[in-house]
Known about the structure:
Layout: E1 22-25, H1 37-48, H2 56-74, H3 83-90, H4 93-109, H5 117-124, H6 133-142, E2 147-150, H7 156-165, E3 172-174, H8 193-206, E4 212-216, H9 222-226, E5 232-236, H10 241-250, E6 253-256, H11 262-272, E7 281-284, H12 288-296
Parallel strand pairs: 1-2, 1-4, 2-3, 4-5, 5-7, 6-7
Helix pairs in contact: 2-4, 5-7, 6-12
Amino acid sequence: MFTTRGQLRPMSTSLTMTSMDILFADFDETITERDTLSELASVVYDDVCPDFKPRWSYFVDAYLKDHAAMLAKVGGPSTAKTLSEELAFLSSKSAREVEAASITRVANSGLFAGVTIGNLSARAAQIRLRPGFRDCALAAAAASIPLIIVSVNWSVAFVTAVLEANGIRPAAVHANEIAIPPSSGQKADILTGTDKSAVVKSEMVARNASRACYIGDSVGDLDPLTSCRPSVEGVLIIQKPSVIEACKRIGVQLVPLAERSHNQINEFTKDFLNRRNEDALIYVSEHWNQIKSMLIQ
């Protein structure tokens, strides 16, 4: 990845931390200010092996070429008119093949050979988090709400190091791992939003959780933002044009958290139950502080 149905239920207490069992979150550009994939690669090109060939541009160009070929094969970008059609497009066999090929290409190149936890930790300390995230994460920890990361990032070790550099200890990090592969071999099983939703649902069962919140920022998060209802509410942390356009095209309602009281959200949700796409609703927040305010009320 390079940068380039359940039933909706009324919420008796809205999005409050006292009623939350788990706080799920995407990582890149949800928790961090920028995508960190190039930063992960920079560990090699800046610190470990400056002369490594091929250069990073080769991997980026190869991914973009594969992605363009995939779009040409399916007739262009998504023109889906419903949520289910959009999710099927985003997690199609062709889309998964592009992501898998990218990871395999990098893994087979030996790009991360020789990288150590120390290398990753040094770079992780330089990653900037979105304002308010740390306070929100610490508030969740104080309330004994586990933070679980679900990401298509290429390194569990790197994601964990970034969070720990900011004093945050996640309950779990679900991501791929090709930088510091485990003894069982390289791990690459989170390719699309469908995989993210599977992780969320599995964690809900494993932890006997009944209520949770998933925070995401991109079209790639649409699946876990919407398909894990009614037990998992989706919150979009920022309003990227690509996400807004997609939601408008497929009829997903975006509901600002900051403009609604708990009672207003409850009434809106009850009214929404009478609409055609009962699960096509995502809450929107401009800032992690807004999410924290909602969670701790």
